[in-house]
Structure prediction request, 286 residues.
Amino acid sequence: MNFLASLGSHRARRAATLAVVAVLLVAAPLPAQPRRDGAANGGLSVVERAEWSLTRPSPLVTVNVRMVMGYLVLVPATTLFLLYLFRPRPYVMAWVVSWLASSGMAFSLSLGNQDVAVGVPADTLTQMAAGRTSVLAWSVTALVFGFAHRASAQWFRAPFVMPRWTWWVAGGAMVWLGLSTWSAHPGAAFAPAFVLLSLWQAKGAIVYIQKARLHRFSGALFTGVGLLAIVLGNGSAAALAAATGGITPVATGLAYLNVAWVGLMVLGMHLLVFEDVIADLRSANV
Prediction:
């Protein structure tokens, strides 16, 4: 009885397998049918007349890379804020502010790119930002982004001190950005903001690497190396753009390479918080 039941189930499985193979053999050539088979059928292929939705061409979706990056960098801002609740230190909050500012930079550059005509380069100064307000928004958020990285490196395992020169530089930069944005070429606002951003990032990267050697923290090393790589990449892209008179695809590719370095920085920041906690626990138990 068991033998007959097993034989029946075996035959059923074999019959089902043969049926599936037959369907696949019949259906496989259908997507390869020619798209046009004469005016008598309205110029439609066999598949299109059959209204098979799965074999129709997929609709084109336009992805704004800068907009996507603006949303993505909100993820480390959120996770670092949660770590700040666990480890309330000034350098952690500076990281949160830096990624929020980075999101603002990406959003300000993404404005206006949706209406770029086909064949018109989208990576030009007039197409990257929609109006002077976006130029001002990018410049201000760039300054906040650079200063936050500079401050976080200085505040790591050090007293929370805000130097007096900070207020003078911040005030002078805001006045200059406001005047240059509304009365001059947008490049007059982009260039100073970019220079200050790069200088503050470079200084922060050097301090992180120094503290990595001092405390033997891998997180500080990852953060410093990632930040320094971003400075070098942005500097190379800016130099290439200045030499060619515009933002070329190579310069854009160098800028997009920052995604990898941002990932390294995010990893280093999260690792550094845990290394800082472990170091405090070890010193407390000594």
About this structure: The first helix runs from residue 2 to 27. Confidence is low (pLDDT under 50) at residues 1-7, 26-39, 113-129.
